[in-house]
Amino acid sequence: MAFLEIDRLVKRYGATDILKGISLSVEEGGFLVLVGPSGCGKSTLLSMIAGLDSISEGEVRIAGKRMNELHPSQRDIAMVFQSYALYPNMSVAENIAFGLEMRKVPKAERDKAVAEVAEILQMGHLLKRKPSQLSGGQRQRVAMGRALVRNPQVFLFDEPLSNLDAKLRVDMRTEIKRLHQRMKTTIVYVTHDQIEAMTLATQIAVLRDGVLQQFGTPAEVYNNPANVFVADFMGSPSMNLIPAAVRAENGKTVVALQREGEGDLVLDPGQAGEKLSAVLGKTVLFGIRPEAITDHDGADRNARTLVDAECQVEVVEPAGSDTFVVAHLGGKHVIARMRSDVPVRAGHRAPFTFNMDKAVFFDPQTEQRVA
Amino acid sequence: MSAATVGARPAGSRVLNRIVIYGLLLVFALVYLIPFFVMLVTSLKTMPEIQNGNMLALPKDPTIQPWIKAWGEACVGLTCEGIHGYFWNSIKMVVPAVAISTLLGALNGYVLTKWRFKGHKLVFGLMLFACFIPFQSVLLPMATVLGQFGQLGKVFTNAFGMNLGFGNSTVNLVFVHVVYGLGFTTLFFRNYYEAFPTELVKAAMVDGAGFFQIFRRVLLPNSLPIIVVTVIYQFTNIWNDFLFASSYAGSGDVMPMTVALNNVVNTSTGVVEYNVNMAAAMIAALPTLLVYILAGRYFVRGLMAGAVKG
């Protein structure tokens, strides 16, 4: 039995279901990230775990114990809010100690706990200040300190980094990961940023319109997306999704991509071929991540099926460490990720290497995975 | 009009604008200040000087005797002990009435914004309605209610030897002012707490604070601006109230200041002592002035800075 279990959870406002039966579970010490576009219900789900929103149907269990009817303060959780929600009238130390004070922890113990947390987060010098005297990053730290000091069973984070600037966000992300490795406390973390989800999570749950799209490890979600939505949402730049015809050629199943002004680009789908033979003659969405389309020398040596093909290059975008090369295939812009010093030029033909081990295929109608 | 044409305006017309604006301001300031000036100088003059002199002239020989007389010897009706007793009557009425109505208004605002229940809009609408009821229309019903209080007081006196405040004129006035102040104080606090970040309340809930702990530790300490506004508003209204005071405590030594002042000025025995009347009126107006000067200093904005976001 998992540590935190979310069992067929439904949230209903009037006749509208905001969450439509979500089931998830995390082991103790796990890091669950709820990710999805805004309005997908991820923050509502977190609020329901916290007890700040009521549960219409289903059950939330922590360590096997039903939480539905318990007040937030009795669930042994701590929460970091998007706005930090620091009490403006209290000093940093008072903010951190407030939860302990409410639980009637003696003053001496409180002071000790605050000092420990300040040590962990390196903010001893800030303890006497008021929240208004802190920078965004410092407030973020205090908000985390307030959660840490309680030493709860589960930490809940509601988009904690969304108010920070880009550089600080990366720093704090690392800091949260470090804290998690050190504390080994179960965390549920809400974000709309798929990179945060990938870097932090041990388990990712992708939500959309109140429906769980996929639940798995970051690698699973990234490499084996369950549907077009997950494929498109995770990863930046996002996965190339190209309409392709499934054909039989010389007794093998192949996929053919339309090219402008020349013949189709025919690719061997590798291991996916067997499953694809079931949809022979139909059109599928061929999904391949930019890093699986490379220049010839940059391709993964261990890949089993590498296909070389020449394509017309539309745009070249050097990004320092890599160069993104845009081509036109199957009526779509296709992004390839090549080495930075690759000698391709816009408007010319260039050789591309497709790593077909990484290719995924979706039904264009149902948007579900075919192979 | 574009910025360029504004900048190209002749300097002469701008000066003229200023003269018109400041001239008007000066005229209005004078209109408001002259009566006050007359009151002040008259209260510092002797009676012969008032009778023979110019109203606007400065006192030739300033004296605070009228103030002392107003405070300690002026006749209110038939008793000639000055207005100081009535001054304290007013204080005893206004302090609890302001404190209770402000606190209850804050509590109402807190519940109506952070602990919403079905029909909260209707409840708030009805409370707002209280702001629009003319006070004259409630005089009689309220008198009936206060009469019942008096009866209850008598029952308590027979049972415990004390009336527990029921039937006491000051308590009655406090009750009336709390009831009729609630509409306004609730309105003030509800609108303030509407903009108060709900995440703070949620954070306090997760931290284990209860309903009243959240109110006392999180909401109230961050409500200083609206508390000041409410206190100034309520204090001024209640202190200056004449209608309720004269209706429910209009005679004897329970009168509040406003009624007593009226009786000082309306006294029909002997010469009209303008200087004493003016001094009494000034004394009656002092507390509201003082509250405004003292509390106004705490009218600070931006107290919520740093609560949320960066």
From TrEMBL, chain A:
Its main location: membrane. Keywords: ATP-binding, Nucleotide-binding, Sugar transport, Transport. GO terms for cellular component: ATP-binding cassette (ABC) transporter complex, substrate-binding subunit-containing. It is a peripheral membrane protein. SMART domains: AAA (SM00382). Pfam families: ABC_tran (PF00005), OB_MalK (PF17912). It is found in: Cell inner membrane. Residues 4-234 form the ABC transporter domain. InterPro entries: AAA+_ATPase (IPR003593), ABC_transporter-like_ATP-bd (IPR003439), ABC_transporter-like_CS (IPR017871), ABC_transpr_MalK-like (IPR015855), ABC_transpr_MalK/UgpC-like (IPR047641), Mo/tungstate-bd_C_term_dom (IPR008995), NA-bd_OB-fold (IPR012340), OB_MalK-like (IPR040582). CDD domains: ABC_MalK_N (cd03301). NCBIfam families: PRK11650.1 (NF008653). PANTHER family: ABC TRANSPORTER ATP-BINDING PROTEIN, MALTODEXTRIN IMPORT ATP-BINDING PROTEIN MSMX. This is Multiple sugar transport system ATP-binding protein.
UniProtKB/TrEMBL annotation, chain B:
The keyword Membrane applies. InterPro entries: MetI-like, MetI-like_sf. Residues 87-295 form the ABC transmembrane type-1 domain. It is found in: Cell membrane. Its main location: membrane. It is a multi-pass membrane protein. It comes from the Bacteria. GO terms for biological process: transmembrane transport. The chain crosses the membrane at residues 19-41, 93-112, 124-150, 170-193, 214-235, 278-300. Keywords: Membrane, Transmembrane, Transmembrane helix, Transport. The keyword Aminoacyl-tRNA synthetase does not apply. GO terms for cellular component: plasma membrane. Belongs to the binding-protein-dependent transport system permease family. This is Glucose/mannose transport system permease protein.
